[in-house]
Amino acid sequence: MAKKNFSAGSTKSGVLNNDGGEKLREIQAKTQYNFKYIPKDKIIPNPKNEQYTQDGIEALKESILVNGLRHNLSVLYDAETDQYRLISGERRYHAICQMTDKEYRDNFPAGIPCKVEKSDISDIDEEIMLISANHDVRESSMEVKRWEVSRLLELYEAKKLKGEIKNIHAEIASQLNISERQARKYTTAEKLIPELSELLNSNGIDLNQADKFGKLDEDAQKTILSIIQKNGTIENAEFQSIKKLSEERADEARQDLLQWSRGLNIGLHFLSGALTFDPVVHQVDGKTASQIVWMDAFLTNVDRTIKNTNMLMWHKELWLIDHGASLYFHHSWTNWQKHALSPFVQIKDHVLLPFADQLEEVDATFKQLLTDDKIREIVNAVPDDWLNWEDTHETPEEIRDIYTRFLTERLAHSEIFVKEAQNARKALI
Question: How far apart are the first and last CA of the chain?
Fold first, then answer.
């Protein structure tokens, strides 16, 4: 096969030839992007692309040799490193690198044609753009599509908290070129039990069924699973009967919950599909471990041990949960000054203590961040309704003052609990 030289850019409509400089400038004038030829050593992979497979590089190389580069790479310029970070085109990039490292090193002499984003964007918007770009150019499996929706849900939840968007599912639908209704079905599918979830990934059930099944309780889903395993499918009459029983159980559960949850409650985020943190399986770097150990020592949290880590892994991220055992001085309340200066000997049982090798560095950083004003701001954010205690004569404002004084006093003498943690760590390792 004769060697071809592909130094030209492309659009969805086709390849731009080398003599298409004028055409290239015309396209740039009509779009929000810059087209640029970039040397391959100036382009770096995006670590957030790890979710997507890099299979099929050899076939892609052959396609580029025969047909040219039919889609430009999409990149963001990083001024700090003077490099371009990939948004879309990871497989194309690796294919071109392999080609030009070997027998086709004369190809792309002007560089790799890329679509360069003009404006600076946040980390969240960059990841949204990456997911959308990969979705547009790949034929993804159901598992990957579900991950895309799930991750976009998290990202847009963060944007909604900032007041940047209103309708999360509408935004997801727009990015993935699906209907809002379909986006909601993917969300509901995350409530499936693992066995039904796997059936969805392997096309044993479709998304419409997953949407119906995911709205039912675990017992109902297990019944559905057993029927499918036995018969290969489930009839609508069978499903409706199971659905009715599930709704009756749900109503009873709601009544029990309301009965036992009188008073003010706080709504928390449910991490569907999260796994309990296991220090044997999951790795935590020294800085992160030190930050968590420092925080728990500062807040006197006795409940993050090997037996009960109170940590979850969700989409490869570490989440801290259930801090009800923190600030245990407030259970006695009368001797907060003594507790503020305690070394917190219970830190010896902390599940992350063996990995916490940067406690002094974290202590210095956190003491700069947690100023007296910042602590006061945090404490003042606690609603009055949470501070109207029946067993004390103090007002909400007086209670806030004690919490503020406890935290500022403990922070001012942080060397006490930091030293205790360091000594306990030495005894462990």
Answer: 62
